[in-house]
Amino acid sequence: MKILIVIPARYGSSRYRGKPLAKILGREMVLRVADICKKIVGLKNLYIATDSKQIENVSLKAGYKSIITSKKCLTGTDRVAEVAKKIRADIYINVQGDEPTINPNDIKKIIKVKKRYPNHVICGYDQIHKLENPASLNLPKVVVNNSNELIYISRALVPGKKNKLDKIDYYKQVCIYAFNKYQLKKFALKNKKSLVEKIEDIEILRFFEYGIKIKMVKLTSNSVAVDEISDVKKAEKILKNYYHQKN
């Protein structure tokens, strides 16, 4: 079974232009993500998918494969779908290029569950930790049922509460996805965001439109997504703690 990891890396992020090339402890963020993914599938089955020659050059110089995808790609998953048209695999793993502190074991968990549930899209989630603000609009919150299937995901605080005194543990999306070729083909079919996806600006919501179920995998990652410049220091703090514990 061929497993391909694709790291979508768009240069022109609306919140943080040039984000994949932001330095995290002196190394470009997209390369830090690639360094983690390489531990799972090696160099042969790992691609950095980008619309930027600058990102491609940095990737190639570091020894990673890169593939130029259209500037018209609406989301990172659209970018992965474009790669799937060119490169055959049984499972496509989308690891977002702004997750430089992801635990490689979490990627392994996603792959394991995808093999077990091939007809589901697979996505990671975790409890929101102390370095993050649950109310942040940059942080998609998830609601999961007893079968670990996604009920809804929102930038708003979900689930909502009627009684203000109720204590709620909020959970966040961890942007590691697993798809098969059919699911990616369906996702990119219309080259258009669904209504709710557009409102929330959360790409995985598009699968709801096609009736494709999403299986959520509970991870124990301490990762922080770098959505804006202030998140760089958070990611560096996590990495420093990791290196300190390792040494």
Walk me through this protein's architecture.
40% of the residues are buried. The mean pLDDT is 91. The strands form three sheets. A seven-stranded mixed sheet has the order 5-4-1-6-10-7-11, sandwiched between helices. Strands 2-3 form a two-stranded antiparallel ribbon. Strands 8-9 form a two-stranded antiparallel ribbon. It has helices at residues 29-41, 53-61, 76-86, 104-116, 181-187, 195-200, 206-209, 231-246, and strands at residues 3-9, 23-24, 27-28, 46-50, 65-68, 91-95, 121-127, 141-144, 150-154, 171-179, 214-218. 32% of the residues lie in helices and 22% in strands. The chain is built from eight helices and eleven strands.
Between the first and last Cα atoms, what is the distance in angstroms?
36 Å
Low-confidence stretches: none
Radius of gyration: 17 Å
Structural domains: how many = 1
Structural class: alpha/beta
Average pLDDT score: 91
Which CATH architecture would you pick? Answer: Alpha-Beta Complex
Q: Give the overall shape.
A: globular
What is the fold named in CATH at topology level?
Spore Coat Polysaccharide Biosynthesis Protein SpsA, Chain A
Secondary structure: helix percent: 25-40%
Name of the CATH superfamily: Spore Coat Polysaccharide Biosynthesis Protein SpsA, Chain A
**According to CATH, what is the class?**
Alpha Beta
Number of helices: 8
Q: How big a fraction of the residues is strand?
A: 15-25%
What composes the largest sheet? 7 strands, mixed
- Give the strand order, joined by hyphens, for the main sheet: 5-4-1-6-10-7-11
Total beta strands: 11
**Secondary-structure element pattern, one letter each:** EEEHEHEHEHEEEEHHHEH
